[in-house]
Amino acid sequence: MGASPLAVGLGFYGVAIAVFLPLEGMSVTNLGAILTTFGLTTVIFSIPFAIFSDRHGRKVLMLTARS
């Protein structure tokens, strides 16, 4: 419930960036590389944080992220 505004914002950002940057002259290849890098970075950093939250509890991770 608390992450809903963040998810909506990130969803809007993903669509807006994919529409806006080609209009500004960025090539579709470069845009694809940027979006792919963003996706891979998200997955790669999610793994250590998932392990941390399983070991130390999700409450600690959520409190740390909020501050």
The major β-sheet equals: none
Shape: elongated
| Mean pLDDT over all positions | 83
Q: Helix- and strand-based class?
A: mainly alpha
List the total number of helices.
3
Number of strands: 0
As residue ranges, the low-confidence spans are none
SSE run = HHH
Kindly list the characteristics that best describe this protein.
0% strand, single chain, 67 residues, mainly alpha, 3 helices
Provide a brief overview of the structure:
This protein is mainly α and 67 residues long.
SSE order and pairing:
Layout: H1 4-23, H2 28-56, H3 58-66
Helix pairs in contact: 2-3
Tell me what the structure shows.
The protein has helices at about 5-25, 30-55, 60-65. By secondary structure, it is mainly α. Helix 2 (about 30-55) crosses helix 3. The radius of gyration is 16 Å and the shape is elongated.
